[in-house]
Design a protein that fits this description.
The protein is an alpha/beta fold and about 300 residues long. Helix content is about 45%, strand content about 15%. It is built from 11 helices and 10 strands. The longest helix is centred in the middle third of the chain and has 22 residues. About 10% of the residues have low confidence.
C-alpha cells in the first residue's frame, strides 16, 4: 500500500506547527543538536566542473563545517579516477549527499534515468554518503502544464527514490525554479501524491522565499517527511542569483532552525549559496559570514 502524505497528515503537521510556533525562540545558549554542512555550489562547481571540488572542501574544512554535498556526477568523476576517497580523507569532511537532476516529464527516458540513479547512488554509498537529492528537469515554464505531466512526475520520482533506497540511501525531492516542479502548488501536490516511504522532502528554503512563499511555513507543513534541506537566504540583490550569505536576507533562518531543532534535528542541513558573475566576495568570504551568523545562533563547528 502506498504511503503518501495525506491531507490528514498535513493536518497533523499543522498542529505540530502551531505548537512549535507558540514556543519562544530557542536561546543561543541552549545546546544545538544539528551538525551543519555545506554544498559546493558557490565554489563554481556549476556547471558540474569536477576540478573545483578540492578548493571547496579545503574551505569547508578550514571553517569546521561537518559535511558536504555536491553534484553526483562530480562525485563520480573523482571516484572513477580513484581520487574521491583520498580527497575526503585529506580534508576530513565527510560526504553526506549527492545532488542529481532527473527527467520526470518524458516517460521514454525513465529507464535510462533509473540506471543513472542506481549508478550514482552506488558512488555516493561507496564513499559513505547517506542521501540522494532528486531534482526535476528544466521546462519552458511559459508553456508548461503541470497537471498534464503530474502522473509521470509522481511515478518517476517514486521509482527514482526507490532505486536510491535499494542501494542503501535515503532520497528526497528538491523543488527548483525553472523546473517541472517549481511553485508551492506543484510542490504540495507532488508530495501529497508521492510514496513517502521512499521519497522524502528536501527543500531549498531560499528558492521557496524567492518564489514568494513563506519558507518557514512550508518547513512546518512538511516536518514529518523533511529529511534534507538546502539552507539558503534570499535578498533579491544583483549578485548570487539574488541569494546572499545567511542572516543578510528575508528567509527566517533562525525560525527554520529552531523548528528543526525541536522536531527534526536529525535532518541533513546543508548551507548553500549560488555563484554569479562579478560576485563581490570570494566563496570563502561568503562562508565565513554564514558561519559567524550561525555561531550567533549557538551553533558549534569542528575545531
Amino acid at each position: 500500500m502506498r504511503a503518501s502524505l495525506s491531507r490528514r497528515d498535513f493536518s497533523k503537521a499543522a498542529a505540530v506547527s502551531i505548537g512549535a510556533g507558540a514556543l519562544p525562540m530557542m536561546h543561543a545558549a541552549e545546546p544545538r543538536k544539528i551538525k551543519i554542512g555545506y554544498t559546493c555550489l558557490i565554489w563554481g562547481v556549476l556547471p558540474r566542473t569536477p576540478e573545483n571540488l578540492e578548493g571547496a572542501l579545503k574551505d569547508i574544512s578550514s571553517l569546521g563545517f561537518y559535511k558536504f554535498e555536491t553534484f553526483a556526477e562530480v562525485l563520480e568523476d573523482w571516484d572513477l579516477k580513484g581520487e574521491l576517497g583520498k580527497l575526503i580523507e585529506r580534508y576530513k569532511v565527510p560526504l553526506t549527499s549527492g545532488y542529481l537532476t532527473t527527467n520526470v516529464t518524458d516517460p521514454t527516458k525513465r529507464k535510462e534515468n533509473l540506471e543513472m540513479v542506481t549508478r550514482l547512488a552506488k558512488v555516493i554509498k561507496k564513499n559513505n554518503g547517506t542521501f540522494m537529492v532528486l531534482a526535476a528537469n528544466g521546462v519552458k515554464r511559459a508553456e508548461y502544464n503541470f497537471q498534464e505531466n503530474r502522473k509521470n512526475i509522481v511515478e518517476s520520482l517514486n521509482d527514482y527514490a526507490k532505486a536510491a533506497n535499494d542501494v542503501g540511501l535515503g532520497a528526497g525531492f528538491h523543488q527548483h525554479t525553472g523546473t517541472a516542479i517549481e511553485s508551492k502548488e506543484e510542490t504540495y501536490t507532488l508530495m501529497q501524491s508521492a510514496d513517502t516511504r521512499h521519497l522524502k522532502f528536501a527543500p531549498d528554503v531560499g528558492q521557496l522565499q524567492k518564489g514568494g512563499v513563506d519558507a518557514l511555513q512550508v518547513v512546518k507543513d512538511f516536518l514529518p517527511i523533511l529529511k534534507h534541506m538546502h539552507l539558503k537566504d534570499y535578498v533579491g540583490g544583483p549578485h548570487f542569483a539574488g541569494y546572499c550569505p545567511l542572516g543578510q536576507g528575508k528567509v527566517d533562518i533562525a525560525g527554520i532552525l529552531d523548528t528543526l531543532e525541536k522536531a527534526n534535528s536529525d535532518a541533513n542541513i546543508m548551507v548553500e549559496l549560488d555563484g554569479s558573475k562579478d560576485q563581490p566576495m570570494t566563496p570563502l568570504e561568503t562562508a565565513q559570514i554564514t558561519k559567524a551568523y550561525l555561531e550567533k545562533l549557538g551553533y558549534k563547528f569542528r575545531a
